[in-house]
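Final report, Chapter 2: Outcomes

The project's central promise was a pipeline that accepts a single protein chain and returns its three-dimensional structure in a standardized token representation, suitable for archiving and comparison. That pipeline is now operational. To close this chapter, we reproduce one record exactly as it appears in the project archive, with the input sequence first and the structure output second.
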Amino acid sequence: MSSVTAADDVPPVSETKSNFLKAYKRPIPSIYNTVLQELIVQQHLMRYKRTYRYDPVFALGFVTVYDQLMDGYPSDQDRDAIFKAYIQALNEDPKQYRIDAQKMEEWARSQTSASLVDFSSKEGEVESLLKDIAGRAGSKEGFSYSRFFAVGLFRLLELASATDPTVLDKLCTSLNINKKSVDRDLDVYRNLLSKLVQAKELLKEYVQREKKKQGERAESQKTNETISKCLGDTLYNPSFLAEWKA
């Protein structure tokens, strides 16, 4: 998954959105679809930057955001299918995203605050990946910072139980990442999560009300059927009742 360097190779945003809709044709509830459509536009712009290069921290960040967004989705199968359609619409590999995100999560769980930021002095698959990112970020070649990368860093800290705020400072320094940009984008992420929680709560209340209404309608229908059975279709005919009331 390397960067796209030729301008002719860059598809328009409309093509990416169209590919997503073609790959997943079922309707998506608006509470999820509105955010997904916004995210895919943002990620398209990231994906086709000249300096873009896929990396596992970015993958972890996106997977974290996606799973938070789609938490509570009615169907696990549909949630996975939407993820697949979304990533493939960007001409990337959804399996690779999941594999790399899981690998980063497992690594982070085995780290401490100290070992997390001291990756440059250690050997290992993830340590090598982080060294590569640091090198590219430091040289400004083949690295394009994004909000998903910031969320990926935050997730690493979270899984390593690194609660000291200075750990993020040190990690950003080790990776040659601008800490102010990370702070700004994490604020955006937290704000998004807060809005999603509120929106999902409203959706939950709406669904409960609708279920209650459906139950009441079903109960009413059941009562009507029982009355009809007991009294006979003729007696329960609406025109007969109208005459009776008259």
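Archive annotation: Residues 172 and 179 are 6 Å apart (CA to CA).
This record, like all others produced under the grant, will remain available to the consortium after the project formally closes.
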